[in-house]
Specification:
The protein has 402 residues and is an alpha+beta fold. It folds into two domains: 260 residues, FAD/NAD(P)-binding domain (3-Layer(bba) Sandwich); 86 residues, D-Amino Acid Oxidase, Chain A, domain 2 (2-Layer Sandwich), CATH 3.30.9. It contains twelve helices and 21 strands. Strands 1, 2, 7, 8, 9, 10, 19 and 20 form an eight-stranded mixed sheet that branches. Strands 4, 5, 12, 13, 14, 15, 16 and 17 form an eight-stranded mixed sheet that branches. The chain has a three-stranded antiparallel sheet with strand order 11-18-21, with no helix packed on it. Helix 1 packs parallel to helix 8 and helix 9 packs across helix 12. It is globular and about 65 Å long. The site of flavin-adenine dinucleotide (FAD) has 38 residues, from helix 1, strand 2 and helix 8.
Amino acid sequence: MSHSPLHDVVIVGAGPAGSTAANLLAAAGRDVVIVEREVFPRFHVGESLLPCEAPLFERLGVTPDGALFQYKDGAEFIDERTGDHVVYSFSGALDGTPRHAWHVERGPFDKLLADAAAERGATIRYGRAVDRVEIRENEVTVGVGDAHLRARYLIDASGQDALLARQWRAVEPLKDLGRAAVFAHFEGLAPAVQAELGAQGYVKIFMIEDGWIWAIPLVGGRLSVGVVKWRGKIDEALHDREVAASPLLQRLTAGATRRPLRILGNFSFRNTRSRGRRYVCVGDSACFLDPVFSSGITLAMLGAERVADTLTAALEAGDEGREDLMEPYAARMRGAYDIFEQLIRRFYHSRMIHNLFFAEEPDPELRRGLISVLAGDVWRDDNAFQDLLVASKRRRRPQVAG
Ligand SMILES: Cc1cc2nc3c(=O)[nH]c(=O)nc-3n(C[C@H](O)[C@H](O)[C@H](O)COP(=O)(O)OP(=O)(O)OC[C@H]3O[C@@H](n4cnc5c(N)ncnc54)[C@H](O)[C@@H]3O)c2cc1C
């Protein structure tokens, strides 16, 4: 093995979590290297952002521009079986919750974030996979083929690959949440449909038997449509069947071309060893919940921001080797994941969400609180809806910890 310099931080993966952490650490003057298996831009699923991460873009030096960012004003829930339909505009959230978000195509979005990190001084090595990690008392060694990197600290931002969790068999599947998805883009939407979808940019969530469908408008006259199920068979024919069975999707995609379908499975899990001496897992490599409320990227980026701030101070003080360094970060993220998990479980397995979503005259405070949660504003202590979810979790078996 060649002798290599000791970096401050090595990050595995240049997705939203890895690039956010690298950006902020490099901006604080730290020597950061990201190792990324793919060459960017590369395809990635997950295109709908939440308002609460909007302020972070400014900190990262990223400007959301109209060539990539489709304005998103809220979420629309539709049950075509019953005729139920409701729109939750972010403008109806509790005071202080940011009021809008965006939808993005992930290839260019992730490249934009990675480029911003590189501009701040982070080194990114594309097209290389980390294949082993060794954590020692005083440093971390990361193997990349027949080379290796040394660092004072390791951030695992490897997404669903969950490098450390799989190496240590610490992946705990979250049963009864979304199990698999089949999805594709439709291109060449009719101009009237583009105008209709683009005006408010709502993400449309269609409720179906044992699952749901997303319809996300993207710039360039495209619509992303995905079918998620928590049980039953997922295959390409299911996508065609569900689109054909929906009068609204039929109308929106009339005359458009469906691009090739992709399938992803077994994506809801938590990592039972998400932090420890000289390492932390952030983003999907720490925990991933069913994507129905579009929480993945927001939790990944806000978590990475917290990790970067904690680590910057620790590297400065020279106490980054403390076993409990990331406990406050982990507790903060556990609270957020818990709230979304409770919401998702009720979405699938109780009438509570259905009744609340489609109530003719919902309690106004609960409605505002629900919208704040849908916006990703899950760290406040004045949200009656959030309190209701947390209390209902206490009455049940704990689901997400760690
Ligand atoms: C079906 C589905 C729909 C979704 N929809 C949404 C949505 O609408 N909105 C939303 O917010 N989220 C959504 N998500 C979730 C979202 O995609 C993720 O939460 C988000 O990508 C997490 O970012 P990350 O940086 O943690 O991981 P990733 O974005 O997955 O990035 C991880 C990176 O690590 C790299 N990597 C992995 N292993 C290695 C290795 N060994 N060495 C080097 N590099 C490696 C990968 O190439 C990748 O680039 C969805 C997820 C699924 C499954």
